[in-house]
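Sample intake sheet
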Amino acid sequence: MAEYTSPVLEEVIYEVASLEDAKAQACALWGLPSEDLCSDVLDEGKRLFGLFGKKMRVRVTPVAPLPLLRAQQFVSDLLGLMQLEATPQRVGADTLDLVGDDSGIIIGRYGDTLKALELLTNLIIREPQSSWKIRFDCCGYRARREATLMRLAESFARDAIKKRCSITLEPMPSWERRFIHLALQDSQEVETHSVGDDPMRKVVITPIKKR
């Protein structure tokens, strides 16, 4: 029987005959392959009156946050069903980088396919009442997109100042909107806010009226 040390099941302790038994039970519990788990012996245990098999206490933990590991498994299976050559690799605690020959297909036009895959995975994997999200990247696309967003933010800010009117950008996912807000948060000439509902939510850049 397992002892749960946290409600999110980030660690379990088993009394078993071997490390392999502990990992097998944790694999069944979490739905993960054994290579995604780490185990260590807490107590070697003793035989009871020399009659029963020796038991040991083994702690099993995932090698990364459970939602990220489950997302990696889900995306790997999905890409296989789609017959796309790409492998999800973990980057940090909240990002999957999809690397392979079919990266262009996965990114899609303006990143739409990658965004849709990220949204679908979070809807399936994310635990109830949790605001934590898994981010997706594909062969450095995110960094290139952030560079583009920076140029857009600066360009539209100049337009708003020159025309003395608000500029509304195209609909963006939450991480792109946040990047625009952060890019212009220190400006003394414009301010930003978002309008609308997802997936059509947009950033508005407005010139600050001087007293």
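Comment: Confidence is low (pLDDT under 50) at residues 1-7. The helical segments are 19-30, 66-81, 103-107, 112-125, 141-163, 174-184.
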